[in-house]
Amino acid sequence: IFTSVNGVEHFFARLHHAGKDTRALGYAKIAAIGTATRDRLRTYGIEADLVPQEFRAEAVVDALRPILPPRAHILLPRAQEARDVLPASLSAHGATVDVVAAYETVPETEHGEELAAQMMDGAFDYVTFTSSSTVKNLVRMLGNITPLQHTKIACIGPVTAETVKSYALMPAMTAMTYTIDGLVDCIRESVE
After folding, report:
1. Which of 22, 55, 57, 139 minimizes the number of CB atoms within 10 Å of its CB?
2. What is the mean pLDDT of residues 42-69?
3. In this predicted structure, what is the pLDDT of residue 8?
4. CATH hierarchy code of domain 5-103
């Protein structure tokens, strides 16, 4: 199961570094979360067998549940820091899930004070969050949530919006299509 474009990129980089190519996947069924992830798989000659309509982990679980063979073995290359919805839910249905940290999201550590000052001065119309980790990392970088209270917050989807709310902040908007293009469209529609 590929959950992001980054997961695809890092998985295939490691595969190629090991001297292998897509043939190493054999007859494995491939699931992708989101059209961008599906499209990136296509650049490697892989057509996803499953792309749920809703671009989040819960939708993959719902789609796999009725077709998951007994004792299925699932590889989940993803970010080191990610929600446990997929492995926990699939394991609960009898699957063996191998979670591989394919990449790590490294937060920016510099310029926090400068960015906070710009936000306080109203320099930005919007702050966009594309994942829960982007929320956590920006709050960590800023030192507190006060600067974020001075700009509109746009979220890529409901999971990210819930993370924003967990910091006692309120998203101004949440994209209905959980992609970068969907987020851009959401902002564009609010401006027009």
Report:
1. 22
2. 90
3. 96
4. 3.40.50.10090
